[in-house]
Amino acid sequence: MHKVVVLGSRFGGSATAYWLHKLFARHELDVTIVDQWPMMTYRPAMVMAAAGHPQIADQWHINMAKKYEQAGFHFIRDTIFKIDPASQQVILTGHPPLAYDTLFVATGSDPGWATIEGLGPQRSGVCEDYLARNTGYAVHNPIHHIVIGIGCLHQSPYDPIQLQASLDVPGFEVGFLLDAWLSQHNRRKGTSITVLTPAGVPGESLGSISQEFLLKELKRRDIHLITHAQYERVTREAIVLKNQVTLEADRMIWVPPYPGSQLLRLSGLDDGYGWMPTDEYCRHERWPNIYAVGDVNRSALPKLGHIAMLQARTAVHAFWAERKHKTSRPYHPYILHVLWLGNGRGIFTLSDTLYGGKRQWVNVGRMAAASKSVFNWSYRIFAGWMPIMP
């Protein structure tokens, strides 16, 4: 039986498992998913936890292992040490080497906390449950200066899409949600909110219409924006920029830099910069039985779950087509994102302008926020295997 191994169990890994289950009969494949945790922390909900609702962090743990086992797949809880493409094995820290015929890598990129002097998880963040929870509790205390720092994206120079920020939308989202929460508690006038981004505009990946709206909304709500931020160092109470500007912060919230994957570097599967080089079907350029899905793929954008799900569909359909002597469609990316604005409003963006297209559709209001709530709850109820998949 053909052995398929999927590394990672978040958006990309889960969607990969879904399409393997959807396209193949049980007797065709022996599928194993490997991840450190049987429970997935649903990161898009963590902005709500950070914005004054810490209890939410414990409500968004999804049992992915149970879903895989129901589908007849194997789940191994372990840490992935290395991939050996020559021997077609995955080296784990607590189990014997795991052999594969086809490998899907959906492990994501590593947060680059150490890439800025003084920065670390102790400075707080929003992309992990424990960081969002701590921030959610902290904002219940008196705070005068909240600074939201967005790290750099350390891309490969070979990537045709070049961005400056790791992913800025969670940073702006938590800023808007905190603004609304503080206003509801009559504390907004005594608290400043500042967003730092290495990019030149907010919503760098979203397109010009959304960017213009975000600029106006930040100004309207008195949320300060500093673009082209270059970080010198971080201290316990301040962020120092390279132009010698020092921003006091009695609470920081970070979306950390992303410098690629150490696993790929160690395995010799990266492009020299921590990202996997792939063709239009998400196959490794040198090893055609290895696919990259989500953040780890050079053509993806970190922390955009929709991109990971698109790549999972492309990769598994290409694998299916190869085995069935069929044809499949190449990867055609576009941005689909909803950003909560607070007070029951959101901004929905559908755009391909980042990839050279001309399509931009933006909706602002309660329907946009409701669409994100529906997606989040659907993802939770169906453990990532929803009736409608991108």
TrEMBL record:
| InterPro entries documented for this protein | FAD/NAD-bd_sf, FAD/NAD-binding_dom, SQRD
Against Gene3D superfamilies, the record matches this protein to:
FAD/NAD(P)-binding domain (3.50.50.60)
Where does the sequence pass through the membrane? none
Extract the Pfam families matched here: Pyr_redox_2
Q: Name one GO molecular function term.
A: oxidoreductase activity
The FAD/NAD(P)-binding domain sits at: 3-149, 187-311
Q: What is this protein called?
A: Sulfide:quinone oxidoreductase
* Protein's organism: Sulfobacillus thermosulfidooxidans (strain DSM 9293 / VKM B-1269 / AT-1)
Lineage of origin = Bacteria, Bacillati, Bacillota, Clostridia, Eubacteriales
